[in-house]
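testing teh design pipeline on a random one, pls ignore if ur not involved
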């Protein structure tokens, strides 16, 4: 894969203070881009911004007014916006009791004892607040970021937006329906907006990472994680750096024919 030089370009990366977002920031900065690091954690955003000689934009991506204001501020400061990576996200909080029930149910299913399985009640137990929070950060945040970026990119007839979905948006799993639904929504959003702006020089694409070794997955039950890794044909999780190569490709001019397209990097999981 050949890479063009990003010197002179400005990239705004949400959730850039940790994991994948920090890896994307480092990768784009390595090719010369000026990075604006968003995060809800000021300390996390500052650490990456200082390392890369970039700027911080500390706000919650679910706050549309803050998103508009911070993107406008970045454009005022740097004179342009070339790349927007909508990456900020959360995982459903760990629920040891439900995880244990799910493991026991899997054993019962393998033994053919379906009538002994206990309903996990993941859906009926999901609160309005948890559903809203997941939608707000992932789906609304991606919409707000896409809209704020397009206000500058479309008049410039140039720009690349990369939305971070998930393999769970393509292959939803029981027990994470709000996460999977939000991530599937990001795919639809990307395709719709990508088609709209393709004639105007702006590209919008989505990346669906498989299971990546980042702080997001640290609280996951090790047995559950081992069971997932067994389902990955590649035999291991991805590194954030591996995903950063794909995002770098989509952010820059080498991906000039990618418009409203969706790219998984899942080690064969999807
Ligand atoms: N790690 C994986 O296996 C995996 C797989 C598929 C998709 N993803 C997606 O990749 C993205 C990045 O995940 P990660 O693994 O790097 O997680 P991470 O927890 O390491 O990093 C996420 C960052 O987003 C920030 N953040 C959370 N809520 C925010 C908000 N409301 N506003 C601004 N910033 C906020 C956090 O502070 C954190 O710094 C997420 O959208 C996640 O759903 C991750």
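output:
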């Amino acid at each position: 894969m050949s890479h063009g030089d990003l010197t002179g370009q400005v990239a705004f990366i949400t959730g850039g203070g940790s994991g994948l977002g920090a890896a994307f920031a480092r990768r784009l900065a390595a090719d010369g881009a000026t990075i604006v690091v968003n995060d809800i954690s000021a300390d996390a955003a500052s650490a990456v911004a200082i390392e890369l000689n970039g700027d911080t934009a500390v706000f919650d991506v679910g706050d549309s007014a803050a998103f508009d204001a911070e993107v406008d501020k970045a454009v005022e400061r740097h004179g342009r916006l070339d790349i927007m990576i909508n990456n900020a996200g959360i995982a459903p909080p760990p629920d040891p009791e439900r995880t244990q029930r799910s493991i026991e149910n899997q054993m019962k299913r393998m033994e053919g004892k379906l009538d002994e399985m206990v309903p996990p009640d993941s859906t009926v137990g999901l609160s309005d607040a948890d559903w809203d929070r997941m939608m707000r950060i992932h789906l609304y945040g991606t919409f707000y970021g896409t809209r704020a970026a397009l206000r500058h990119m479309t008049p410039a007839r140039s720009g690349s937006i990369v939305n971070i979905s998930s393999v769970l948006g393509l292959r939803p799993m029981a027990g994470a329906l709000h996460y999977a639904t939000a991530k599937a929504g990001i795919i639809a959003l990307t395709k719709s907006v990508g088609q709209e702006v393709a004639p105007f020089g702006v590209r919008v694409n989505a990346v669906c990472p498989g299971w990546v070794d980042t702080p997001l997955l640290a609280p996951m039950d090790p047995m559950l994680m081992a069971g997932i890794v067994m389902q990955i044909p590649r035999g291991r999780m991805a590194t954030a750096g591996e995903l950063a190569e794909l995002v770098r490709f989509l952010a820059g001019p080498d991906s000039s024919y990618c418009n409203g397209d969706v790219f998984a990097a899942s080690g064969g999981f999807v």
